[in-house]
């Protein structure tokens, strides 16, 4: 029998999210084109984010 003061522990899944940030400069005709170019250079690994680019950590309970 479990006493009134004792609580049963449950397992929780916690998501840990680290945010990295770096500013790159691209030449483009408009903002949309600039975003697409930035995405391309990131996906092509021409820009790589490192631990020095760290700005924040968040902890979320996964449901």
Please give a handful of descriptors for the protein shown.
63 residues; alpha+beta; two-stranded antiparallel sheet; 2 strands; 21% helix; 24% strand; DpnD/PcfM-like C-terminal domain-containing protein; DpnD/PcfM_C
Description:
Strands 1-2 form a two-stranded antiparallel sheet. The protein is elongated and about 70 Å long. The protein has 63 residues and is of the alpha+beta class. The model has no long low-confidence stretch (mean pLDDT 93). This is DpnD/PcfM-like C-terminal domain-containing protein. InterPro entries: DpnD/PcfM_C. It comes from Psychrobacter luti.
Number of strands: 2
Mean pLDDT, to the nearest integer, reads: 93
In the sheet with the most strands, the strands line up as 1-2
Assess the beta-strand content as a share of residues: 15-25%
Order of helices and strands: EHE
Distance between the termini: 30 Å
Structural class: alpha+beta
Radius of gyration from the CA trace? 21 Å
- The gross shape turns out to be elongated
Which regions contain 5 or more consecutive residues with pLDDT less than 50? none
Instruction: Describe the sheet with the most strands.
Output: 2 strands, antiparallel
Q: State the helix count.
A: 1
Helix content: 10-25%
């Amino acid at each position: 029998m479990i006493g009134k003061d004792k609580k049963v522990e449950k397992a929780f899944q916690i998501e840990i999210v680290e945010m990295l940030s770096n500013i790159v400069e691209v030449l483009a005709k408009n903002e949309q084109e600039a975003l697409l170019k930035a995405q391309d250079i990131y996906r092509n690994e021409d820009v790589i984010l490192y631990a020095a680019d760290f700005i924040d950590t968040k902890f979320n309970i996964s449901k």
